[in-house]
Amino acid sequence: MGHRGTTARVVTAGAVLALATGLGTGPALAVDPTLLIQAPARYYTFAADQGPQGGSLFLLHLNLERVEGEEPLAKDVKLTIDASDLLGKADVRPANGDCTAKDLVFTCTYSSIDGKTSVQPFYLRGAKDVKPGFGGTVRYSATASNAPAVKAETKVFVDRPDLVERKHAPLNDVAPGSTVELTPAVANHGRLPAEKGVGFKLYGSDGVRIAREHSNCHYKSWADTSAYCVFDTPLEPGAALEFSKPLRYTAAEDLMYGSVGYHAWVNGADDPWENEQPGEYDRTGDGAPLTLKKAEDTGFQGYGGHADVTTTQHADYQAVTGTVKGKVGQTVPVTLGARNAGPGSMDLSDASGHGAGTYEVTPPRGTTITSIPFPGEDDDWACSRRSAGSRTYVCNLDDTFGTGEQESLVFNIRIDKKVKGAEGKVVVRDRDDHPTRDPRPENDTAAVPVKITGGKDTGGTGTGGATGGRGEGGGDSSGPRTHGGTSETGSTTTGGSGTTTSGGSLASTGARGVTLAAVGSLVALGAGVGALLFARRRGNGSGTH
Fold it and tell me: Could you give phi then psi for residue 176, rounded to 5 degrees?
């Protein structure tokens, strides 16, 4: 955990209580603005032998109490920050900004403020030879020409508690719709105690619901994927605490892969609400309150506190195909892609790697793919060649591929000449590290037939070809390998796809292969889904078309 202190808030029964000094809990009664100083009650700074050489940037906020139906504006605002009590205990270095400094007293002026205003007056770290736990007090006062004055203060400590969470084993072979359990635990590997206790943010990925069971935990009324639990039990250095009862999470019927977890913070110092709205957590559980009990300080690490969930649910990936129909010399659009017929939904937005699988398109002999445009974008290549010189293109599925969804693209295919019996193919592949456990692998492959109509087209339609591609009848230049009854190359592939629900038909025959999708960096929470979302996935560059 970092050393930057921010406003600490704790949810209490029936209300949100802000612990930051200077914050009120009731609504303002007057129309005139009410100033707020949102600063940490306790701030733990780096010791002289820790952290960046210049120290950490101290942060606080000026704000206004909101009045329903009004948009208050505070005028001629002056904020004074008196850090003189830190002299000899901490090194205070002014930061460039709106504040002027004299003898460790900082003055910040604003013609007006109409909401949350960040103030970063100085860099801070412990002075040399100051022992852990020593420090002083930073005092604030704020005035405005049309608002009452307000005061607050922050107690500064050199060094800090260092909270680390328990490392958990994966939860595998979970039955769809069933309940799993996880017991959160935290250890203090720092040199100072968490005197005011610790709090936990609990979460589950989409498709994993947290049971609303405990009266001292707070939940959203409209969602069950996160909660907050706060405890006033102190946590000493070298000690560990765990929940008195395990938390229960329920997996959705269509869940295939997900995760559960938690993050611990120091009460009165860290801000668990930095990216949250406390008022949204307006429900408490009906059951007995949770407590913390002592635990052995083993199996803890930074960025622990989570467990991957794998269920026994499966998904039926299906190839979406179409017919290349037109005259020789004509370029025709054909919609090709993949569909998830369920019952499982694939959501890998929180997993490492790239995409929920791929689909590969090989055009029929005697034809050439001239472009695969991103819908609505000025880019003709949404997919990449499987390898240099290959006639096969690989398109990545989006990270989220829900049951009933189809991802497909329009392939512009030029009919170069008539080749008897020529057929292309679409092959859908899942990821080796997140298999679909597809019960019907035969529909993962579909033929792309050709139907020549009329005489040769002489209108010059679509005369351009794919760069670097092989002529008609050319084979795949990459070395084949056999896997699952299908010949495929051993190269790792990247690409992209759009999503659409128009055109295409499902395969009824074929074979299925499995390849490993390209491994990338961790992705953040929350990829959008929907039949009309176009997810842009870059390939190897324009030179690979």
Answer: -55, 135
Say if strands 42-45 and 147-158 run parallel, antiparallel, or are unpaired.
parallel
- On the question of a common fold for 9-158 and 315-544, the answer reads yes
* Ordered strands of the 358-362 beta sheet: 324-326, 445-452, 423-429, 358-362, 393-396, 384-385
Closest by Cα among 244, 245, 229 to 293: 244
Bridge partners, 112 (sequence order): 75
Question: By 3-state DSSP, what share of the chain in percent is helix, strand and coil, each rounded to 5?
Answer: 0, 45, 55
Give the model's pLDDT for residue 278: 79
Provide the residue ranges of all domains of the chain, joining segments of one domain with +.
9-158, 163-311, 315-544
Give residue 459's pLDDT band: very low, low, confident or very high (50, 70, 90).
low
Residue 84: helix, strand or coil by DSSP? helix
Q: What is the CATH number of domain 9-158?
A: 2.60.40.1930
56-57 and 122-126: which strand pairing? antiparallel
**pLDDT at site 31:** 62
Please identify which residue in the block is written with the tokens 């950490």: 56
- pLDDT tens-digit profile of 235-286? 999 999 999 999 999 999 999 999 999 999 999 888 777 677 778 898 998 8
pTM of the model: 0.71
At CA 404, angle to CA 444 and CA 322, rounded to 5?
Answer: 50
Q: HSE on the CB side for 522, CA within 13 Å?
A: 3
Q: Read off the pLDDT of each residue in 177-201 and give the average, rounded to a whole number.
A: 95
Q: What is the pLDDT of residues 115-166, one digit of tens each?
A: 889 999 999 999 998 989 999 999 999 999 999 999 999 999 999 899 999 9
- Looking at every residue in the chain, the average pLDDT score rounds to 81
Please identify, in words, the CATH class of the domain defined by 315-544.
mainly beta
The token pair at 65 is 């109490």
Q: How far apart are CA 224 and CA 519, in angstroms?
A: 31
List the structure tokens of 179.
């309940």
Reading the block at residue 284, the tokens are: 């408490």
Q: Which amino acid is at 37?
A: I
Report the DSSP beta bridge partners of residue 487. Answer: 482
Q: CATH: 3.40.190.10, 2.60.40.10, 3.30.70.3420, 2.60.40.650. Which one for 163-311?
A: 2.60.40.10
Q: Could you list the beta-strand ranges (E) of 389-477.
A: 393-396, 400-401, 406-415, 423-429, 445-452
Q: How many CB atoms lie within 10 A of CB 498?
A: 24
